[in-house]
Structures are given as structure tokens and as C-alpha cells.
Amino acid sequence: MDDFCPPFLEISEIKKKVEDFRSRFPRCNKFPIDMEALLEQDLQISIQPIKRLRSAILTDSFISSDFRTLYVDEYEYMNEYFENKLRFSFAHEISHLVLHAELYRHQGFNDIESYIAFQMTKSEKAYSRYEKQANMFAVNLLIPTNELIKVLAQKKNRLKSNGFSCIVLIFLL
Fold first, then answer.
1. What is the pLDDT of residues 39-89, one digit of tens each?
2. Which option is the CATH number for 11-142: 3.40.50.720, 1.20.140.20, 3.30.980.40, 1.10.10.2910?
3. Which pTM value belongs to this model?
4. What is each CA distance from 109 to 46, 54, 77, 112, 159, in whole angstroms?
């Protein structure tokens, strides 16, 4: 058995964990979430830019196993073009804290070399499961259902007021 393979979580369980997380951090209820403030002020996780992180390990960020430091590609961190992408990456790394803390804490990685070694020990099944879970958590954290419904309703009303039919609206939404 793979020691790092996280337990299977239903989508409803992940959504519940997102709601529990939101209830602990009011900043998460403002749209869009200020991810840097959430990390640094609320969670006490420092953001550490690293030159050429993406080219070294083919990822734009990773969080240390003690959850004290989030490493991020310096170029992407300093470039406004990547702002939304990094918001997702930050939410994804927070997901590992919420969903996989016990599995991570025993791994002992806090730099690029130890992170690579950690990645090399995981099976494809374990890697896939924990990444999918983290992605699902991140999406639900960044796009609260109530905010999404509001935005879609506004777009629907705007389109209807401009004369679009209901059939066209279905394709556009």
C-alpha cells in the first residue's frame, strides 16, 4: 500500500471542508479572496519567490511539509499576467494544508531538492488523488457557489435585456 495515498473523498466531503474553512476565515467570504493576505496574515504562511522554480521542477508553487512556507516561481509572482493563475495555485497549496496535513507533515520537505525527492516516492494513484482533491478544494474556495449564482444571474439578465432568447442564453452560460 502507498503510504502517501490520501483517502478517497467524495466531492460533497471536499465542499464541506471548504465551507468549514470559510467559516474560520472571514476573508474567504469576500469575492475575490485576497489569497496573499489569507496566506500571510491568517495562516501565517510566508510566500517565498524562487528564481526559475517552474523550469527547475515544472510547477509554479509548492508548500513546505511544515506549512510555514509557500514557494512560488519568482517570475510568475512578480508578473501581473499570472495573477489569477497564482490565485489558483495558492488556493491549491492551501488545499493540501486542509486536506492532506497529516500525510504532508511526515514527509520533511522544505526546499526544492527534498520536494523533488518527495514527489519521486509517490505512486501515480497517490499523486493523482491528492492533486485532484486539492484542485477540487481550490475551485470551490475561489468560486463560492453563491457568488457564481449571482454572477450568472447578472449575465443572464444583461443578455435578456439585450434581446437574447432563452435558447441562446443556455449556450452562452
1. 999 999 999 999 999 999 999 999 999 999 999 999 999 999 999 999 999
2. 1.10.10.2910
3. 0.85
4. 15, 17, 21, 8, 50
